[in-house]
Amino acid sequence: MEFFEEEIDPAGVAFRDVLFLMVLSLVVVIFLLTLLINPIEKTDEVPMRTEIMIEVMWPSGTKYDVDLWAMGPDKTPVGWGVFSAGPVLNLERDDRGMINDSSSLNYELITVRKREPGEYTVNLHLYNNFGEPLPVPINVKVTGKGDMGEIYSGEVLLERRKQELTVVRFTLDVDGTLMRDTINNLEKSILTHR
Ligand SMILES: [Ca+2]
């Protein structure tokens, strides 16, 4: 019976309430301290300068819907529907051929705004050729700022609808310097990472 009495003892209940409030306060204080120590990164701190430009262009006035896709060291694909990955990659312009397009220019652009160390992959995807003849020739240019200069420039062919093609891969070292001997075009799918 002693145990039962203790259960309904108002002093014991009050003590538990106080203890609960103390623990709750401690949790709140720890949470606030964590926020102060690790402030949430504000989006306006994303550097707006372009470090690397990835440009693609295909015949003007045609209906092909080509998609440019890129992936940086954080492994988040950037392309149609996924416009930016962290502060690093950003799809600045998507072109859907003739759809919603008052210009006959077919051009897409992804920029890299921060020289994050690691590997970058640049792929093309022929979303739809809309009856236009295949293959479609596409001009790709990857240009780095300053001493980095031209990373890739050339023409590639997409031969069938839904084809994904790796155009170029390159790696930046810990200082953000381009490692020229890493430039290659070994196939690596980005779309499978979506
Ligand atoms: Ca497109």
List the helices and strands and how they pair.
Layout: H1 2-8, H2 10-37, E1 52-58, E2 65-71, E3 77-78, E4 84-85, E5 89-93, E6 106-112, E7 118-128, E8 136-144, E9 150-158, E10 164-172, E11 178-184
Antiparallel strand pairs: 1-6, 1-8, 2-3, 2-7, 4-5, 5-6, 7-10, 8-9, 10-11
Describe the structure.
A hairpin with a 5-residue loop joins strand 10 (164-172) and strand 11 (178-184). A 6-stranded antiparallel beta sheet has the order 4-5-6-1-8-9, with no helix packed on it. It has 2 domains: 9-39; 52-193, sav2460 like domains (Lipoxygenase-1, Sandwich). It contains 2 helices and 11 strands; from the N terminus they run ααβββββββββββ. The longest helix is centred in the N-terminal third of the chain and has 28 residues, at 10-37. The chain is α+β, with helices and mostly antiparallel strands. The structure holds calcium ion.
Q: In brief, what are we looking at here?
A:
The protein is of the alpha+beta class.
List key phrases describing it.
2 helices, 6-stranded antiparallel beta sheet, alpha+beta, binds calcium ion, 2 domains, single chain, Lipoxygenase-1
